[in-house]
Specification:
The complex is a heterodimer of chains A (116) and B (111).
Chain A lengths: L2 E5 L2 E3 L5 E8 L8 E6 L5 E7 L6 E3 L7 E6 L4 E6 L8 E7 L11 E5 L2
Parallel strand pairs in A: 2-10
Antiparallel strand pairs in A: 1-3, 3-8, 4-5, 4-9, 5-6, 7-8, 9-10
Chain B lengths: L3 E2 L3 E4 L5 E7 L10 E5 L6 E4 L13 E6 L4 E6 L8 E9 L3 E4 L3 E5 L1
Parallel strand pairs in B: 2-10
Antiparallel strand pairs in B: 1-3, 3-7, 4-5, 4-8, 6-7, 8-9, 8-10
Classes of the chains: A mainly beta (116), B mainly beta (111).
Chain lengths: 116, 111
Amino acid sequence: EVQLVESGGGLVKPGGSLRLSCAVSGFTFSSFSMNWVRQAPGKGLEWVSSISASSTYRYYADSLKGRFTVSRDNANNSLHLQMNSLRAEDTAVYYCARDPLYSDFWGQGTLVIVSS
Amino acid sequence: NFMLTQPHSVSESPGKTVIISCTRSSGSIASNYVQWYQQRPGSAPTAVIYEDNQRPSGVPDRFSGSIDSSSNSASLTISGLQTEDEADYYCQSYNSGIHVVFGGGTKLTVL
């Protein structure tokens, strides 16, 4: 059974940092590109970042302006998102998903709240 | 980057057919595959259509997808509407360099 489980969300002050993780099981993690997608409260889906299977290619939404860094650990089947200089508008549920082009499996999300 | 524009909401009665559109702002809709995701409140999205018109395993054939180059848009058609189809629907595509784009989402009400 494919499982993606996000962790690391929580309450953080503006300007702070947070590192999200996504633990993956049930498929050969090292063979797939991965995706982070977020959803602000009451809003639509917003693509955040993608990383290729071997970490060669990393892509980010223009709106992030270099504040986020995606990485992966294929030995431990985990995906990460380092988020720095957090702003109130980064408040959202963050989902990891398999394959940015067609995301056939998603985690349940982890909530990040940026507030003083 | 291009944008994908969807109607904010649609509504229809059970048993009827509804079509949700997704218009690409620039570049050809046929350039990159379009996916459609269903999201019920409090749940993660799940795919109902991939690669323009393919249904994932387990998705009923009441769901179908298409693209129309003349209007530069994609469409999700749901026939024989059921109350369980009530959800938010998002179209998604990407450009070269794998920048993923989501539409703004359409709230489907089955009344």
